[in-house]
Amino acid sequence: MTIDDWYAHDALIEEIVIDVLNRTVSIRGSSYAGPEAPARNRFTLLFVDVNTVTTAVDMVELTANTFAGHLNHAKLAHGPGTSHLYLVEGHMSVTSLSAPRFM
User: Fold this and answer.
1) What is the pTM of this model?
2) At 95, is the secondary structure helix, strand, or coil?
């Protein structure tokens, strides 16, 4: 999967790891391959050379929306820059020196 073909809508987030010493952020979860896909597939999205991370996450709302999904949509950087993940009642942005990649 690439950042161009990731269907972020209704993806579930299981874990967000911010590694300060290594300047990485990884997001582990599952997402649909497309709007008609019958099941979600696991993913890990990795950001390296991270400069800043900002987040406002309503854990109660995310937990309540686990049946439907945690992400409304995402706009991922294609190089150095800021990626935005628009959550149910929240937002996360990661600014890094390179594009995020799927592991």
Assistant:
1) 0.94
2) strand
